[in-house]
């Protein structure tokens, strides 16, 4: 286990040794430096490698096993598990569709609404519309690798995307289409998210349990000139792909 040389633990650290070990092993697994299905040395070997007690190793490995990052097979040993999917779209200008496509996921969609019409109050305010302006709105469920991830509602100023309500959008990136068809793309976005229970529509269309908490996301994406391009609302299923946020100083 050559990557073990990257692990440094300190008794001066406020985190207990087992948590330091668990966190660093987890980082190696998520970064791919410890490959899925690769063998992990035995507990005594890990004790020797890291210079810690067997109890420290045992608790750290148990914590990783509880997350599915380590798999223990009787009489065969311990192996690196497959990390759960992640999405970074909350901290980038990529749409969720494009983010997951870049990660190699198999994507499918089902559209329930694609229409042009009068804006509701939220659309009117979020898109900074004026009297008489219309919106193009759509609603669809989005699956990755067969698992439901979002029930999405997207709204655009109709004047910015003329004729989009007549397009074939199934299985395609909406923002990618708008970029290619109209030369429009978001340069920044404001996003808010909170825990929420699924509505009846979300429960039925996503196929998630009615008592399963989801993440409710609201987002307004702006073009380079500062005007809104997209008003996005979605129920997000973090059980399908957890949200990854990278923070730097």
Q: What does it look like?
A:
By secondary structure, this protein is of the alpha+beta class. It has helices spanning 17-30, 43-50, 54-66, 96-102, 121-126, 174-182, 200-206; strands at 39-40, 70-73, 77-80, 86-87, 107-117, 135-144, 147-157, 188-196, 214-222, 228-236, 242-243. A 6-stranded antiparallel β-sheet has the order 5-6-7-10-9-8. α1 crosses α3 (54-66) and α2 (43-50) packs across α3. The longest helix has 14 residues, at 17-30. 29% of the residues are buried.
Helix and strand pattern: HEHHEEEHEHEEHEHEEE
- Describe the main β-sheet briefly: 6 strands, antiparallel
Strand order of the largest sheet: 5-6-7-10-9-8
**What is the general shape?**
elongated
Supply database-style keywords.
single chain; 249 residues; alpha+beta; six-stranded antiparallel β-sheet; three-stranded antiparallel β-sheet; 7 helices; 11 strands; 26% helix; elongated
Summarize the structure.
By secondary structure, this protein is α+β, with helices and mostly antiparallel strands.
Give the SSE layout.
Blueprint: H1 17-30, E1 39-40, H2 43-50, H3 54-66, E2 70-73, E3 77-80, E4 86-87, H4 96-102, E5 107-117, H5 121-126, E6 135-144, E7 147-157, H6 174-182, E8 188-196, H7 200-206, E9 214-222, E10 228-236, E11 242-243
Parallel strand pairs: 4-11
Antiparallel strand pairs: 1-3, 2-3, 5-6, 6-7, 7-10, 8-9, 9-10
Helix pairs in contact: 1-3, 2-3
């Amino acid at each position: 286990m050559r990557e073990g040389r990257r692990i440094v633990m300190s008794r001066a650290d406020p985190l207990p040794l087992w948590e330091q070990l668990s966190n660093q092993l987890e980082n190696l697994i998520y970064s791919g430096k410890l490959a899925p299905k690769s063998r992990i040395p035995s507990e005594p070997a890990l004790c020797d490698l890291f210079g810690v007690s067997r109890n420290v190793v045992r608790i750290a490995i148990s914590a990783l096993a509880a997350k599915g990052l380590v798999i223990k097979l009787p009489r065969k040993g311990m192996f690196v598990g497959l990390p759960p999917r992640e999405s970074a779209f909350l901290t980038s200008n990529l749409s969720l569709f494009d983010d997951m496509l870049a990660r190699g996921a198999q994507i499918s969609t089902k559209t329930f609404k694609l229409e042009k019409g009068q804006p509701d109050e939220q659309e009117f305010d979020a898109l900074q519309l004026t009297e008489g302006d219309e919106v193009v709105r759509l609603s669809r469920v989005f699956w990755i690798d067969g698992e439901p991830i979002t029930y999405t509602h997207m709204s655009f100023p109709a004047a910015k995307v003329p004729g989009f309500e007549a397009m074939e959008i199934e299985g395609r990136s909406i923002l990618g289409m708008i970029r290619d068809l109209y030369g429009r793309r978001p340069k920044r976005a404001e996003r808010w998210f909170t825990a929420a229970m699924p509505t009846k529509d979300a429960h039925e269309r996503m196929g998630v349990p009615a008592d399963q908490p989801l993440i409710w996301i609201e987002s307004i994406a702006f073009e380079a000139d500062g005007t809104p391009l997209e008003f996005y609302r979605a129920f997000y299923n973090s059980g399908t792909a957890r949200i990854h946020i990278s923070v730097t100083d």
